Amino acid sequence: MTLRPTLTAAVSGLAIFCTVAVAQADVLFWSTQARPVEEAQAMREKVLSGAPATVDYQPNEDGPWLTRLQAEFQAGSGSIGVLGSLHGNFSGIDPDNLVDLDDLGVASNSATFNNLAKLGTGHLQYVPWMQATYIMAANKEALQYLPDGADIDALSYDQLIAWTANVHEAAGEPKFGFPAGPKGLKHRFFQGYLYPSYTNGVVRTFASDAAVTAWEKFRELWAHTNPASTNFSFMQEQLLSGDAWIVFDHTSRLAQAFNERPDDFVAFPAPAGPTGRGFMPVLAGIAIPKTAPDMEGAKELVKYMLTPETQIATLRATSFFPVVDVDMPDDLPPAVQAAGAAVAKMSGSADANPGLLPAGLGDKGGDFNRVFVDSFERIVLAGQDIRMVLDDQKGRLSEIMEETGAPCWAPDAPSDGACPVE
Amino acid sequence: MNARILPYVLILPVTLFLGVFFLYPFVLVAQQAFSTGDGFTLDNFRDVVSYWKFPISLKNTLLLAALVVPLQLALSLLMATMVSRMHRGRDMVLYIWTIPLGISDLAAGIIWLAIFEQSGFLNSMMSGLGVIDRPMNLLSYQHPGIVFLAIALAEIWRATAIMLVILVAGIGLIPKEYYEAAEVFGASRWKQFLRITLPMLRPSLQTALILRVVLAFEVFAVVAALGGTLFPVLMGEIYSYQFDLQNNGAAAALALIVLAISIFFTLIILRVLRVPKGASI
């Protein structure tokens, strides 16, 4: 009678032991990217299936991602093998906790990216992994309302405003869509698009007269923006539902719309202002934490992620573009083709004014974003006086810059020491 | 086992659990709130309180609690008295009324979002009935009142059942003899409710109110789903300090402020609804 429970216990104990043993052999890929279920599954099945070791790909929200990582750092031992995240997340981590990756012999084809990946040290702290940017997209319905003489591939902000006004009038409701929801990437629009296009800077020019003009223009645009935008996070949803006809968002947050109905939408470059066509390349990287249990396995995985074949597979899975030289195949998904063409036009335009993601802010990246989000909420949603809000927020911004000592990044003019707010 | 030791042995696991998972983290959070790396400081509290959104989120949280809790109290009292008078089908009705209890906050928020959003049920229904020509943006910054109402409705729908369960149990404890005596003297139903049910229900009311008020200060997921960034509340600010800004100290300070508010209101409820010693059943 007592034999059976004992046996069951022994067998289940053995089973648990075996699963633990198997789990330990996997390299845990702890990532903030490719989070949507389809993308995560594509990462597992299409990208990581050919990896040198079995990989346990686990995408997470930023918060849990960082919390577990920091817990492992504090404990001095961990189970995470490889980290995948955006430049901004890595810049919040103490470089001492990451393994130097110079001797792997892999890097991106962009010197700017490789330099960013050093996180202010002399060594590669993460390897650039994939890149993306933000573009505009429109429902083809809206094209008939383009203002006279406007070229969709070389719009100015004034033309965009005129266009959204025409659409507003024709459709009877505002149809510009802006990702101003809690998970929307609105701050990147201000930092990488509006400010560079109007002030040729982000930090130095934060409270300049040109910045006041920029916010005035944005208010004009907002008059033709779907007021539900404060709930919008991924603009592909509003494109597909028809709640918005002209939108701005991250390429990977527009992909679903292009993949589902490729004939209904067009992708085009961001508009230009008086100081050029501001845009912001987004960089994701892979790093190895000091606490990785299987260092060799992790390094092999990093090398594997940078091979041209894997980079193309990653592109298919996530709509993020390669960072190494690859021959693009012809059969890419519609989203990739549409976004790729728009990105190429944007970065290749004569007035291109690329602005980098904020760098050197350490764990103050969130505070930095909040300065811009707060300005937006106060100026645009609460209707407060632009000059007053900018002068007020300016103090907070310069505190952050002084605390972190972060030097200016493009398009701001270089600085000695902390980037000043002028 | 020795009858004198037994009670202590029985509460030992819970005590340990509370110690490890409540008291210990609480001490850590308190430490975080009062330090920024170089000793004791109130900087975190200053930072949090001086942020321009703090008064707004405090006001929103209190307003929401002030609207939602009394309505829930009235509703749950009504529902509890109705249920307690039922002879058949009582369990079935109770099961149905408590379904929202089994649904997570966020899911509840999303359910109500599906009703209120631009292409949601409410809009489809109204345009189907010909009330409106085109879908309206109900949850937008232009209609803060509707956003507030939607959040309040979702909260009432989601969390009234917690009070209901406690009150139904409380009503069940009131001896039938009181009502029989009242019938003999010809007291109306309303009088019975005022003179017997309400006073006898005091301990349950106390529990239900404290639980609900404390939960009202912790409202978060429903607000995030329905209001996005339009309706800042204290809990949402804590989340954004912790995860968007990675500022543990400020998040901890704000958490302590919420704790202080909760304790303050708990004390008020305890005092107002106090049950004199020996008067409880």
Automatic annotation (TrEMBL), chain A:
It is found in: Periplasm. The keyword Ligase does not apply. Keywords: Cell membrane, Lipoprotein, Membrane, Palmitate, Periplasm, Signal. It holds the Pfam family SBP_bac_1. InterPro entries: Bact_solute-bd_prot1, SBP. Residues 1-25 form the signal peptide. Belongs to the bacterial solute-binding protein 1 family. This is ABC transporter substrate-binding protein. It comes from Hoeflea ulvae.
From TrEMBL, chain B:
The chain crosses the membrane at residues 5-27, 61-80, 92-115, 146-174, 209-231, 251-273. It is a multi-pass membrane protein. The keyword Iron does not apply. Its main location: membrane. This is Sugar ABC transporter permease. It holds the Pfam family BPD_transp_1. InterPro entries: ABC_transporter_permease (IPR051393), MetI-like (IPR000515), MetI-like_sf (IPR035906). It comes from Hoeflea ulvae. It is found in: Cell membrane. Gene3D superfamilies: MetI-like. Keywords: Cell membrane, Membrane, Transmembrane, Transmembrane helix, Transport. The keyword Disulfide bond does not apply. Belongs to the binding-protein-dependent transport system permease family. The lineage of its organism: Bacteria, Pseudomonadati, Pseudomonadota, Alphaproteobacteria, Hyphomicrobiales. Residues 58-269 form the ABC transmembrane type-1 domain.
